[in-house]
Amino acid sequence: MTVEPRRSPLDGLDVHREGVRLRELPFPSQVDLRLDPVGTAANRVAQSLGTPLPVVPNTVVVSGDRHTLWLGPDEWLVVGPDGDAPVVVRALREALGTEPGSVVDVSANRVVLELSGARARDVLEQGCSIDLHPRAFGPERCAQTLLARANVLLYQVNEMPTYWVMVRPSFAEYLVSWLLDAARCPRVGADRSGRGTDPSS
Amino acid sequence: MTAHRLPNGGRVDRAAPVRFTYDGKRYTGLRGDTLASALIANGVLEVAPSSYRGRPRGIVTAGVDEPNALVLVDGSLLPATTLELHDGLSATGRSGVGRLTDSTDSVRHDKRYVHCDVLVVGGGPAGLAAAQAAGRTGARTILADERTELGGTLLATKGFDLSWPGLAEFPETRVLSRTTAVGYYDQNYVVLAQRNTLWHVRAKRVVLATGAHERPLVFADNDRPGVMLASAVREYVNRYAVAPGQNVVLATTNDSAYQVALDLIAAGITVSAIVDSRPEPPAALVNQVGVEVITGSAVTGTEGRHRVSAVHIGPDRSIPCDLLAVSGGWNPAVHMFSQAQGRVRYEERIAAFVPDTCPQDLEVVGAANATYELAACLAEGAAAGARAAHLAGFGGGTAPELPPVPAESDSAHRPVWMVEGDETLQFIDLQRDSTVADIRRATGAGLRSVEHVKRYTTVGTGLDQGRTGGVPAIGVIAELLGASSPGEVGTTTYRPPYTPVSFALLAGRDRGELHDPIRRTAMHSWHVAHGAVFEDVGQWKRPHHYPRAGEDAQAAVLRECTAARTGLAMMDASTLGKIEVQGPDAGEFLNRMYTNAFAKLAIGSCRYGMLCRADGMVFDDGVVLRLAEDRYLTTTTTGNAAAVLDWFEEWQQTEWPELRVRFTSVTEQWATIAVVGPGSRAALTPLLPDLDLSAAAFGFMTFRDTVLCNGVPARVARVSFSGELAFEINVATWHGLSTWELVANTGATPYGTETMHVLRAEKGFVIVGQDTDGTVTPQDLGMDWIVSKRKDFVGRRSFSRPDTARPDRRQLVGLLPVDPDDLLPEGAQLVAGGVPLTPPVPMLGHVTSSYRSAALGRTFALALVAGGRDLIGRELLAPLGNRVITATVTEPIFYDPEGTRRDG
């Protein structure tokens, strides 16, 4: 068969709205890693990834095109380019050795949505209760949280801001509908004049 | 200009007329008016009559505390006193009772989640000073104010320059006008309602500058149109430049009414007298107003038809007037403070409940803190704002310089809770038409608690939630009970929302399609294109059946069942939960969790397993695959995927941290296709070129990792939930659709969840959550074989309890209706044959699953029946109201009991 039989859950969605762009990053490699952060395997893993695992909660370490996201005290997600997963799985399993832990290819387990642009934070603020202000959440920060009614892994990639919103594929269509609806809404209520603005007008 | 619009002043735009309709009549107001001020400008003071007694009523206030002037606009009941006038506004007066509209609210509603260092609630002088002091430090500051314009009471103050430089320049300061704080929850979580946006704010520090509400006075006929709060009269005159009356009498218990008198006189309005309850009001004030002050006195009644024409001061004195402005004192608006779990105390000097202590990180300033002089309000606000910012990590905590303001006086108040007169005409709560007589009846009936009196009399239960009538009611209760002060009676509980909030605003965009997530599998589009009828399984949309043209559901399911039993069929099983269990102790861990053993399961094999809760009741089931020495893949039911993962984590983390095992959810990594039927082997042979699919080479309950003919990696397992020869193909989610199409092209009949249910029930396979309900043990299901006698596991100890060994426990049995065409409804109760069907009839159990079977050519069912296994062969009755179905109890297996079909 010559046809590419892979189909990304959102078919390569790429939508521009005023001040915001939403697109799917198709077929990222994603490997879930669990291990004891103070064991010797952690050092071997760091060597094999070329960078230490982030130990500060909700932070990300970027090395080349691999992003290692802190998910918990003993859990990380290594995100890389399409096709990277088998390489990462092999390297991590080898580094883990016989120490307790796990390495699982979860590349298809989450869709990666990229939300970027001047209004990106504004869009997220309509459905995400964590503090996304630059003083509290910035580049190389991540969080597992709720966006609207879907569990997401949220990662701010750069200052633009660009966010990765990582969500289970079954929720992707719902979440995209929600994000596009939220992106439609003009910024409201931020007037500084003391005379109100009317969001309905 | 109308006669009621004053020639000068006000914050209205005289060049911008606004046309509106009230009760079907057309009027013109000005930009900057509220509906209430525009009505007054047109000489309209009387509004809809009272709800219960039909008495004429008028505009009483100029804010959210309005009890009378309620109007219906686009299906919402709103106070005319806060409703901004706009062109084309059409309002209908309503007497405190709204009406639900049956049209859909098409306005877009929105939510915001924001965090800040300092939230200031209230944009009056104290709030403005606080926001400015906090904002200038660079702290993230939010100022929320319910009005269209900042300023609070300053808007109604003459001769004060209202300019607040700074707020606009602070980049991290956000001013939200037309925004009401409606709820205050733990950890400074405050919900703000701004027109169509609901703000969820989490603040490090909160400054409450919510102001105070003026209280009315209670006397006979105090509800007559033309009786208005003194502060409202002042606001109408100064802010809106309208005159609610031309000849005014003021009745007061405190100093604030004197400034009102001065402002009215300055506007050219006659003030005939001030009736002051205090025997010796401050002489400076009395001299300054220059009108008659009747001291030590109170208004006892009014005259007039639809409008006040005179007021009575005792039996002997009557003064003609067309407006009575009353000030019964001021209630600090402690609603937000109390919602924040703050405690209030009664302050005798001003006869009001004032903030005391609060466990949350907040401060109360200004009139909300019973500080009424302007200079003190500003100083208190500025200090609190600077302090809040400092405590949040910004600035040194020093308050900024303040503008000089004129001095004001606030000498002691003398409250008047009760006066002589007909108590049935002395209104406390205008919206509920409740009077002093009602309260007397309540206390006379023995009620002592203010909460009980509130519920008995309905005082304070209206749209305005007792903002005007609440404290006067407490004062009356105190007097009737002989309490030392209203403080001894206490207040009722303040609950959110502070002002009414529409359901549409609370819902935000969680409505219609976005009301709840719809979860779809990778093959969803194919199911839609092929006419699937879906059912909701949790948030998942799963195909229930795939009707062909002209087919009803029953026919479609029978056809799908026949295809699976006699030919080739396929189902989307992607929604099953999947968890990878890894680590050297993975086998031991699973041994401890499942009722049966997994440590010795061969690599490459699968085994069905059952999970119980600690009470021994069935929790979940599924097939477990052993991928490697230290790796297993467990599957769960669709609904329990997250619960089982949590269950594993809980036991590993809290009970057995020494076990070297970790879990990773892979539910959505895999798309799963069940290919079922005697034709499945032949159909799949060309698709799986690397596999020998023969029963000898690829045994039942084993799996293979392989590659499909198109190069897609796949894991194929020989598991069967139908008893037929079956292969389950797992591929990465993004290969799900193409693989599904590949299988569909072999001619397989797609089937849905209903066919799956029929096929498994024919084999007696249970569905956790349908044939079990949290009270059923594996033994009750006749599955003793899956409960290990040799190892310990979660739930095992419960099986030695006498209760789990009772012979009359409900046990799973089969049922065959005597009439093979009778379909028992699921949930039908079962009773013994031969008992009279007149209640009470002992219930023996209920039907858990019931279907028509193509293979059996009849209906059949599964049921949980008390001591059911001993009833096999007997008849039970299912009384269904108008008829009774008789069914024979059988073994819970109806098809191929020998299991000859699973190898094809």
UniProtKB/TrEMBL annotation, chain A:
| Organism domain of life | Bacteria
Q: Name one Pfam family in it.
A: SoxG
* SUPFAM superfamilies according to UniProt: Folate-binding domain
Enzyme class, one word?
oxidoreductase
This entry's Gene Ontology molecular function terms read: sarcosine oxidase activity
E.C. designation(s): 1.5.3.1
Ordered alphabetically, the record's keywords are: Oxidoreductase
Protein name as it appears in the record: Sarcosine oxidase subunit gamma
TrEMBL record, chain B:
Class of enzymatic activity (EC top level): oxidoreductase
Q: Which residues form the GCVT N-terminal domain?
A: 523-791
Q: Name one GO molecular function term.
A: sarcosine oxidase activity
Q: What is its EC number?
A: 1.5.3.1
What superkingdom does the record give?
A: Bacteria
**What Pfam families does UniProt report for this protein, alphabetically?**
FAD_oxidored, Fer2_4, GCV_T, GCV_T_C, SO_alpha_A3
Q: Which InterPro entries match?
A: 2Fe-2S-bd_N, FAD/NAD-bd_sf, GcvT/YgfZ/DmdA, GcvT/YgfZ_C, GcvT_C, GCVT_N, SoxA_A3, TrmE/GcvT-like
Keywords from UniProt, A to Z, are: Oxidoreductase
Family affiliation = Belongs to the GcvT family.
Spell out the protein name for this chain: Sarcosine oxidase subunit alpha
Q: Which organism is it from?
A: Kutzneria viridogrisea
Q: What is the lineage of its organism?
A: Bacteria, Bacillati, Actinomycetota, Actinomycetes, Pseudonocardiales
